[in-house]
Predict the 3D structure of the following.
Amino acid sequence: MERIDLSGRREQHVLEQELLTAGLSSRTTNALIFGADLYSIEQLTKPRWGDPKDRDSLHWWLCRVPGLGPKGIAEVVALRAGRDPGAARLLGQRAVTVPLGSADLGALDAWIAKQPKPITRPEAIRAIVRASLHLMGEGGPEIRAED
């Protein structure tokens, strides 16, 4: 009977526990272990972070893991800064999906058609939100949930 070497699996398990204990999510942990060939938590804290365009950098790799990139990057950045990765927040833009009825969509498209320069629906929605917030005051009125 052939003997199976499980030492690599044990090392992976130990690393997985270290990463989870450090506060990284299981998705980030799995991506780092199985996709980035991470063998030590110190690899995340070394100065070599890299650029998103540098194919040899951790930053580049994390940006390309489906569904992980921004959150995984935020967790690793927090870990490198000595903060809790579990509390990491995404910086920058966030997508907001809002269903629009046909009447609202028609009104939006009509507003877009009246603009001096062609703009996309997302650009139009951002412009309308900014203008509305400006008209209501900086940040807009306080909104309370109905009881």
Observations:
- Residues 7-87 form one domain.
- The first helix runs from residue 7 to 22.
